[in-house]
Amino acid sequence: MENYKKPEEFVESKKIQSVIDLMKQRKVTKVEVAAMCGIGGTYSYMERQGRKIISDIAKRHPVLALSGQKGYRIATEEDVEDSLHQVREFDSRARKILERSKPHERLIDRVMKKRGIANTVQLEQMLPQKQANPKYKK
Which of 19, 29, 112, 137 has the fewest Cβ atoms within 10 angstroms? Predict the structure, then answer.
């Protein structure tokens, strides 16, 4: 089973380029992308790997993945309306994620005031260092 590598390690990969070429023609699924890249395994494993590959492709190409629609494809000039819709979806998700950080920020501020800490760097230095969980290693 081939492990997926980040695009900077094989930007010119023929497998990745064939995925990109197909995505310019039609929608593809995460599992289909993983299979095209030579990745096998369980359905959920292939979905995760396909998602990583599509995510990396989307950093260089305008990948459309609109909610309520299945599959991923690369937008063309004719898809500018869908691209605008995609950007609005991204903005909406980003705002929701940032909203979830506000309670944490309030907690941190409260703790800093109680401890007489001037900035978060000082707070981080006072906290015990957590070990990275190898299960979630990139």
Answer: 137
In this prediction, residue 138 has a pLDDT band, given cuts at 50, 70 and 90, of very low
- H or E, element range at 64: strand 63-64
Rounded to two decimals, the pTM is 0.70
Contact between 2 and 38 (Cβ < 8 Å): yes
Task: Compute the distance between CA of residue 91 and CA of residue 59 in angstroms, rounded to an integer.
Answer: 16
Paired strand residues for 28: 72
Instruction: Name the token pair of 40.
Output: 């096998």
Q: For 91-127, how does the pLDDT look when each residue is reduced to its tens digit (9 = 90+)?
A: 999 999 999 999 998 998 898 889 888 777 777 777 7
Nearest CA to 17 out of 41, 53, 65, 43 is that of: 53
